[in-house]
Amino acid sequence: MMRSFLNPKSTVSAALLVGILICIQSGCASLSPFGNNEIPLTEAEPTNQCTVRITPKFGQTRVETTNLSDQSTIQTVLESSGAIADFRNMEVNIFRTIPGNGEMLRLPVKYDVSQNHVMQECNYAIHAGDTITVRPKSNSPLDKFVESVFGHQ
């Protein structure tokens, strides 16, 4: 009688473990404990400016300070910062300090790749002191697998 060399359950477990170890070793951002909820390290002064942190998949994070007008929205700030030109598909969050208690509020922004524009319902007005984080949206098979296992980070 022929016996199987590896138990199917242990093979799947071993493959999952190896995949997770590869992600950790390669510095996979999908497994970051902060994920999309990372609180920015720098904030714009509460004058009439906001800070835009653009984090590419590879390379250094670029931090820009943008002057605001009365009509500034997330779309206009993304255009003026060059983020739309840098990324076809991106994850965008606005971090806003709540007056009174000083806590940070995260406003996720949905970006429509087909229209190359922020979804109208997420085109928030930008306030002085807001920090906007922009990074490429990950759609690799590994990212989809990690999201299916651990949920959206």
The share of residues in extended strands comes to 15-25%
User: Biggest β-sheet, characterized?
Assistant: 5 strands, mixed
* Helix content, binned percent: 25-40%
Low-confidence runs of at least 5 consecutive residues: 27-37
Element-by-element helix/strand order: HEEHHEEEEEH
Rg, alpha carbons? 20 Å
Provide a descriptive summary of the structure in words.
- With 153 residues, the protein is α+β, with helices and mostly antiparallel strands.
- It has a domain at 36-136: Ribosomal Protein L25, Chain P, CATH 2.40.240.
- Mean pLDDT is 77; it is low at 27-37.
- The chain is built from four helices and seven strands; from the N terminus they run H-E-E-H-H-E-E-E-E-E-H.
- Strands 2-1-7-3-4 form a five-stranded mixed sheet, covered by helices on one side. A two-stranded antiparallel ribbon has the order 5-6.
- The radius of gyration is 20 Å and the shape is elongated.
